[in-house]
Amino acid sequence: MKYLIPLAIPITLWLTPPEMMGLSDLTLVQHRMLMIFSLAVLCWILEPIPIFATSVFLIFMELLLVSNKSVIWLRQGFEEHQLGVLLPYEELLKSFASPIIMLFLGGFFLAIAATKYRLDRNLARVLLLPFGNNPRFVMLGLMLITAVFSMFMSNTATTALMLAILAPVLNLFHPEDPARVGFILSIPLAANIGGVGTPIGTPPNAVAMKYLTGDNAISFSEWMTFGIPFALLLLSVTWLLLIFFNPPRERHMNLIIEGSFMSSWKAWVVYFIFASTILLWLSGKWHGLNSYVVAMLPVFVFLATRILTKDDLKLLSWDVLWLISGGIALGYGLEETGLSRVLIEQVPFSHLDPLLIVFSATVLALLMSTFISNTATANLLLPLMAALGSSEPGLQALGGEMMLIIVVTFSCSFAMALPVSTPPNAMAFATGLLPSS
């Protein structure tokens, strides 16, 4: 069924006259785009093919059906008002090299270099020292370090690293000590929460940046000014809950993590470029370089100095980049064809309280990303939220389009109820030390 449904429903939508769906003013291009959107929803939920393959397929379908280089009999012989707006094929293909993709690419280069030259592990070792030997504060330290790392590395890579560091810590507890469960849970929860701190912390943030342009544009440092305090608040609440439900029996632990910083010239270049890139991201208002331009610094330097080789390039999360590309192309299609506004207009939002709209959008994002990829959820919801935020006057008092996009983006990252909700959750569950309940 998971192969049949993603084909049957979109084809049925395409063959059904718009009038029968209550969308009599739909243009031919919008009708085709509706079919593509339904295909995206079903393929990202049911996963008949890998979700990154769905993204590539969506771009192909847009080129084939709604672009100015689509199949000739789909764009000729129609009145302009009947056909609608055809999308420039160049713009669809640009989604593979969008500034958002370059920003994430720079983050991936930093993460791979940090892992290769053990910067991440050694920073964790040093940063844990101030938290002493009290298990409660050691957990807090691990959570803070995990959150900081996940702001600049993928949540999955951060979780893998921190679970490896956590292994000797768990051996210090009695097998029946409830703190073991608390410590294991602390890593994926902190990784998921920390990802909201920067635009490169998690893919939904990158998708959101696509819509935060013009009057709603947000720089790297501006994102951090609200992302980090919010993450710290949630981390504090999460830590207190973990301690409350999984109190450690021991009051003292002898924590020793071995390691030393590498001292080769390549390692020093990694240290310098890592710090410089972050500082340049934070000081964009002073030097004028935006975060997308700065992201190319580690890419160039690490390749030119052979710090990262062609074998290291195979470690890049190309699937994530392609997943984001598909979301960018889908959002572009929904926006430029006008379909996103048509869909939003079908719901009488003007009769709803603005707070209820925000609450409903938040719950929808949480529910969807509990069961499907948070990036896929962001790809599906954010184009609609951008249209809703800009068209609904009642939301302006709450922050309008920018507020709605950020709230939904954060909600996509905070769906952590199930082991399958996020890769960090799945990795922690795979240790075999956690019950699914």
TrEMBL record:
It is found in: Membrane. Keywords: Membrane, Transmembrane, Transmembrane helix, Transport. The keyword Transmembrane applies. The keyword Transmembrane helix applies. GO terms for cellular component: plasma membrane. The chain crosses the membrane at residues 32-65, 96-117, 137-170, 182-203, 223-245, 265-283, 289-308, 315-334, 354-382, 402-420. Residues 42-391 form the Citrate transporter-like domain. GO terms for molecular function: phosphate transmembrane transporter activity. It is a multi-pass membrane protein. Its main location: membrane. Pfam families: CitMHS. PANTHER family: LOW-AFFINITY PHOSPHATE TRANSPORTER PHO91, SOLUTE CARRIER FAMILY 13 MEMBER. This is Citrate transporter-like domain-containing protein.
